[in-house]
């Protein structure tokens, strides 16, 4: 599936990936899934899933398994960076990524050592009017990295480290990590209602996620073909997923002859020749 999706959704540039985890609980049963997604045209496309047999965070060994699968279908030189939040830190994890030639852009904790000092200390002496600090070529998890430090609107410390880009570019790039949260909402509460299936067996869920991934991508491909008004902030009034799903439902609801023509046209979108020149829209 992952190989097919990468071929279907070509990108002339190095690709950006996101690793994250989604979970829910059904009765006493935890469903905990590690996901590797690729960013394409401003949306996150799920490529690989790893089911965890426990609740809570993943460990470095499990994350490396999913990356080993990824490196069977792409080269590390194809990867611009891998985004991750504060779950995806630690020297063993970062060392393994560096050894495999995978650049990282990860949010680190305020206690994480940066050149021997806790991250929070780098923000403690901000000058009046300053919104953050830019640190280039500092040591994080035993490796040279660039770091941006600032505060969120809620006053929480925000530190992001990267060996893929200079410090002044990190914060804007890291915002792309949010795309995977939009993906999870589309698969769950705001879209396909994955949690409401009440499935907990891993092999059943794995097959279902494969089907949902194809349906999700189909919605994106159809949605990208639709015209929609822009709001004052420049974003679409409706997400590309919503637009695609509506058009697919409308097509299936048409009389037989019209339905056949429309659905075949939408099926034709599953071709790299149709997807190579689509615009970047995001959610």
Describe the protein in words.
This protein has 283 residues and is an alpha+beta fold. The protein has helices at residues 2-8, 60-70, 91-99, 119-123, 167-174, 178-187, 202-223, 240-252, 256-267, 272-275; strands at 15-26, 29-40, 43-52, 79-84, 104-108, 113-114, 117-118, 132-140, 143-151, 157-162. An eight-stranded mixed beta sheet has the order 3-2-1-4-5-10-9-8, with helices on both faces. Strands 6-7 form a two-stranded antiparallel sheet. A hairpin with a 2-residue loop joins strand 8 and strand 9. Helix 7 crosses helix 8. The protein is globular, with a radius of gyration of 20 Å.
Write down the secondary-structure element order: HEEEHEHEEEHEEEHHHHHH
Distance from first to last alpha carbon: 23 Å
The chain-level mean pLDDT equals: 90
Number of strands: 10
- Give the number of helices: 10
Classify the secondary structure makeup into a structural class: alpha+beta
Relative strand content:
25-35%
Spatial strand sequence of the major β-sheet: 3-2-1-4-5-10-9-8
Biggest β-sheet strands, sense, barrel: 8 strands, mixed
Give the helix proportion (percent range). Answer: 25-40%
Q: What's the Cα radius of gyration?
A: 20 Å
User: Which term fits the overall shape?
Assistant: globular
Low-confidence residue ranges: none
């Amino acid at each position: 599936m992952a190989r097919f999706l990468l071929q279907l959704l070509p990108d002339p540039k190095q690709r950006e990936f996101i690793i994250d985890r989604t979970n829910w609980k059904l009765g006493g049963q935890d469903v905990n899934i590690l996901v590797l997604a690729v960013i394409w045209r401003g949306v996150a496309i799920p490529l690989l899933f790893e089911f965890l047999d426990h609740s809570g965070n993943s460990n470095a060994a499990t994350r490396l398994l999913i990356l080993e699968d990824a490196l069977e279908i792409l080269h590390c030189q194809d990867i611009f960076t891998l985004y991750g939040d504060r779950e995806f830190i630690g020297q063993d994890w970062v060392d393994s990524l560096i050894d495999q030639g995978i650049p990282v852009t990860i949010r680190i904790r305020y206690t994480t050592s940066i050149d021997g000092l806790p991250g929070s200390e780098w923000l403690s002496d901000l000058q009046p009017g300053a919104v953050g600090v830019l640190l280039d070529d500092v040591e994080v998890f035993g490796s040279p990295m660039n770091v941006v430090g600032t505060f969120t609107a809620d006053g929480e410390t925000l530190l992001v480290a990267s060996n893929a880009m200079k410090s002044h570019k990190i914060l804007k790039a890291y915002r792309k990590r949010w795309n995977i949260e939009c993906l999870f909402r589309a698969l769950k509460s705001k879209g396909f209602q994955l949690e409401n299936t009440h499935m907990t067996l891993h092999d059943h869920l794995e097959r279902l996620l494969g089907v949902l991934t194809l349906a999700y991508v189909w919605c994106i491909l159809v949605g990208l073909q639709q015209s929609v008004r822009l709001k004052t902030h420049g974003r679409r009034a409706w997400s590309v997923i919503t637009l695609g799903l509506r058009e697919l439902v409308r097509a299936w609801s048409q009389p037989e002859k019209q339905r056949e023509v429309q659905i075949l046209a939408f099926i034709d979108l599953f071709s790299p020749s149709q997807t190579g020149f689509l615009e970047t829209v995001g959610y």
